[in-house]
């Protein structure tokens, strides 16, 4: 009965698999790509190289109903319309080729790149596919060079680099990648550089020390660009490097960090990281954590009825139970894993569940039954890959060894070694090491030291050239026994202590107690949840009965209330209509008043501008009259007085000119005003480069009532410095600063590096017209005037933005 129910669940899951699940449909394009990469990365690593990378991608896309092209078209597919994409997804390549013949420019490049991807990343590596890929990639390179478009040149070259790696011409591929990377660095194009480093780093082997360095830079670049999904993807790739090079603790830390990152961006497919955490925690004997994440993955899968990769999660939970003596529960979970794997997507995991089922049967004392199960499964489902063949031979040898049939055990151990010799990838390194270790221990146990030495030497020799950290209970036992045979008792003792430490952590009774407690907690939670649902159902039935009794009376009163409500609503509707008419009339009146006010305001602004214009013209007329008068004067004092008056009038004229030319007719931009005033004075005195000015003015807007006095003060102070600070045609500097001390308090400073003023000058000089004017104008703006000698003359005025009417002027 349970079996029928299980298949019904599977049938329902298949029926819903025809369209994107809600969890996938809600993802945007970057998250869909991240899902493909996370899933395919896990499938490739979990199968330990038994399927190639491209097959893993195809399987991931098929499982989640996503186009395969999404995994490879990131450089030219941003989610907008992409020419020929729909035809390629349908597999109608003939139509795509006809379309290519008619296409030019960037569209031709995009189409060529898609066709290049299609052939290059087909599962398997067929010569004709590679040749087709090269044809279209060359076309993309040629067209992008004709257009002289850097983006498309880079994208075409990156795909060409990938082609050379697929064609086993790594040196040529590396050359192309480094060329693109170098060019991106020169152009300081962070995004293009990140894409180039990503493409190159991904293709390098996990044992290549350059790979981690390149991917770390890629992660930093994507982080600075805010491309979080791409940062996380490359972070996963580095985690994979740590995993396969034996940096297990580093890999584990990154996996936990990865879960946090995925939650932050709302990415719910966290199970691939979780199941890897289970594998590591299980290997490190952290049973509560391993069981927590194994149960979490299974609970989510069962709750969502998404059995897409159910074989993986049932197998991992079975591993936890099997590892700590709960073999019957483990067998049931392995059985589920096998059934799902045979009827959904063949990820290769269910065949490992078969191996683990054999181990569980043997550990239960049913070794003969385990051998029969091996014969049945390998007859019906023969192992396909070299790794699976090695694993079948290994579990068969162990069963015969357990039964004491050493002849048959040796036969299958030798088969195990033959297959192991054909495996050289880092993904299979641990299994090969472990199985050769067990074979060496088998020969030590059966007292054949010569054969034992052969396999032990193989094990120890394999550890040296690999930058992989590897240790295990069996390896420590072999090291102990080998050192003992060789007479190295001191080292043997150290290895024996290590062996005991690992063995105790593995077989300690506390672990069984822990798993029992956790199982009880999990099952109790499930039971409590069921009881809660039953109670809720009972309460709902009671409420339904009460509702049925009240239904008639509620219906009658509802009808009465409905009639009353309709009457009230009609009354409100009539009132609202009358109010709306009144509001419309009022609104028209207000609009008319506003229009008149706007007209008056515009007229006022125009009049003010016209006044400023006329004032400016009148002041210019006065300047011209003074200039004409000066032509008839021979007295130097009179001429100087007229010139000074012209400068003062110009400082005021300049303000009025700025006001009528500006949109703002009430305030003056002091920076622009002071620069123009200084330039005027420089030209008036024909200073050339003898006296230079340094202006430092904050971006301030001052009222015209303050700007006019300040302009006259500036004119007087600068004129005095030009005339008296640099006698005998000395060179020098005049410094002008206007800065805000706080929000409404300002400081104007005019200083020079000239000879300074004589502090003992007579009262007549001190009370000259220029100084009197400066003092009077300072009072007008309620400013605090100070004057001092310090390597020249420093004149400073502190004043406020909003100043009161000067009491000295009230009587005027």
Short description:
It catalyses: ATP + protein L-histidine = ADP + protein N-phospho-L-histidine. This protein is mostly helical.
Major sheet strand order:
2-4-5-7-6
**What's the tally of helices?**
32
Q: Tell me the overall shape.
A: elongated
> How far apart, in Å, are the first and last alpha carbons?
111 Å
Strand count: 7
Strand content: 5-15%
- Average pLDDT figure: 79
Structural class: mainly alpha
Low-confidence stretches: 1-18, 508-526, 762-767, 803-812
Task: Give the fraction of residues assigned to helices.
Answer: over 70%
How big is the Rg? Answer: 44 Å
Please summarize the sheet with the most strands: 5 strands, mixed
Structure write-up:
The protein is mainly alpha-helical. 73% of the residues lie in helices and 6% in strands. The strands form two sheets. It has a five-stranded mixed sheet with strand order 2-4-5-7-6, with helices on one face. Helix 16 packs across helix 27. It is elongated. The N terminus and C terminus are likely disordered. GO terms for molecular function: kinase activity. It is an enzyme of class 2 (transferase).
């Amino acid at each position: 009965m349970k079996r029928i129910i299980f298949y019904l669940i599977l049938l329902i899951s298949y029926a819903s698999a025809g369209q994107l699940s809600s969890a996938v449909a809600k993802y945007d394009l970057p998250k869909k790509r991240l899902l493909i990469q996370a899933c395919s990365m896990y499938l490739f690593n979990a199968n330990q190289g038994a399927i190639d990378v491209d097959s893993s991608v195809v399987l991931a896309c098929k499982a989640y109903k996503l186009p395969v092209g999404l995994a490879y078209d990131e450089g030219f597919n941003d989610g907008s319309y992409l020419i020929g994409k729909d035809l390629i997804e349908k597999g109608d390549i003939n139509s795509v080729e006809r379309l290519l013949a008619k296409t030019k420019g960037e569209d031709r490049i995009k189409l060529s790149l898609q066709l290049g991807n299609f052939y290059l990343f087909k599962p398997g590596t067929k010569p004709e596919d590679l040749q087709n890929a090269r044809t279209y990639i060359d076309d993309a390179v040629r067209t992008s060079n004709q257009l002289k478009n850097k983006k498309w040149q880079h994208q075409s070259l990156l795909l060409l680099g990938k082609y050379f790696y697929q064609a086993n011409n790594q040196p040529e591929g590396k050359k192309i990648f480094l060329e693109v990377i170098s060019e991106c660095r020169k152009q300081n194009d962070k995004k293009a550089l990140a894409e180039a480093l990503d493409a190159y780093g991904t293709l390098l082997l996990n044992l290549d020390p350059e790979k981690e360095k390149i991917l770390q830079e890629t992660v930093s670049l994507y982080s600075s660009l805010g491309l979080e999904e791409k940062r996380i993807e490359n972070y996963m790739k580095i985690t994979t490097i740590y995993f396969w090079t034996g940096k297990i603790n580093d890999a584990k830390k990154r996996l936990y960090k990865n879960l946090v990152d995925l939650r932050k961006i709302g990415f719910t497919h966290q199970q691939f990281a979780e199941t890897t955490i289970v594998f590591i925690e299980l290997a490190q004997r952290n049973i509560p954590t391993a069981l927590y994440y194994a149960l979490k993955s299974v609970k989510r899968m069962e709750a969502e009825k998404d059995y897409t990769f159910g074989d993986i999660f049932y197998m991992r939970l079975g591993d936890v139970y099997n590892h700590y003596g709960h073999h019957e529960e483990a067998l049931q979970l392995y059985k589920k894993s096998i059934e799902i794997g045979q009827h959904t997507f063949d990820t290769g995991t269910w065949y490992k569940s078969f191996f683990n089922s054999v181990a569980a049967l043997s550990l239960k004392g049913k070794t003969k039954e385990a051998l029969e199960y091996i014969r049945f499964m390998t007859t019906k489902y023969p192992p396909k890959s070299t790794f699976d063949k090695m694993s079948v031979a290994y579990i068969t040898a162990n069963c015969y060894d357990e039964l004491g049939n050493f002849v048959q055990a040796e036969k299958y151990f030798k088969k195990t070694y033959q297959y192991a010799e054909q495996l050289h990838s880092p993904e299979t390194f641990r299994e090969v090491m472990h199985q050769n270790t067990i074979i060496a221990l088998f020969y030590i146990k059966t007292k054949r030291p010569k054969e034992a030495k052969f396999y032990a030497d193989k094990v120890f020799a394999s550890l040296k050239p690999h930058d992989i950290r590897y240790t295990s209970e069996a390896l420590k036992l072999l090291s102990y026994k080998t050192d003992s045979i060789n007479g190295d008792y001191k080292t043997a003792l150290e290895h024996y202590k290590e062996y005991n430490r690992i063995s105790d952590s593995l077989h300690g009774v506390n672990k069984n107690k822990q798993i029992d407690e956790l199982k009880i907690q999990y099952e109790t939670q499930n039971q409590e949840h069921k009881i809660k649902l039953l109670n809720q159902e009972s309460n709902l039935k009671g409420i339904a009965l009460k509702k049925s009794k009240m239904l008639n009376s509620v219906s009658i009163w509802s009808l009465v209330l409905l009639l009353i409500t309709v009457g009230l609503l009609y009354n409100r509707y009539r009132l609202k209509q009358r109010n709306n008419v009144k509001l419309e009339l009022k609104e028209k009146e207000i609009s008319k008043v506003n229009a008149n006010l706007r007209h008056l305001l515009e007229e006022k602004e125009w009049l003010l501008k016209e006044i400023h214009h006329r004032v400016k013209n009148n002041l210019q007329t006065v300047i011209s009259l003074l200039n004409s008068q000066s032509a008839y004067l021979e007295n130097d004092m009179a001429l100087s007085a007229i010139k000074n008056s012209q400068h003062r009038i110009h400082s005021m004229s300049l303000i009025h000119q700025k006001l009528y030319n500006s949109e703002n007719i009430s305030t003056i931009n002091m920076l622009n005003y002071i620069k123009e005033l200084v330039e005027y004075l420089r030209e008036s005195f024909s200073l050339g480069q003898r006296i230079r000015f340094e202006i430092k003015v904050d971006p301030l807007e001052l009222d015209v009532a303050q700007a006019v006095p300040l302009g006259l003060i500036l004119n007087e102070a600068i004129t005095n410095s030009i005339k008296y600070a640099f006698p005998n045609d000395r060179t020098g500097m005049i410094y002008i600063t206007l800065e805000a001390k706080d929000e409404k308090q300002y400081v104007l400073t005019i200083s020079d590096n000239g000879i300074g003023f004589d502090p003992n000058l007579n009262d007549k000089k001190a009370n000259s017209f220029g100084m009197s004017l400066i003092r009077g104008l300072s009072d007008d703006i309620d400013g605090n005037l100070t004057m001092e000698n310090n390597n020249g003359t420093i004149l400073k005025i502190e004043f406020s933005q909003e100043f009161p009417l000067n009491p000295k002027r009230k009587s005027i």
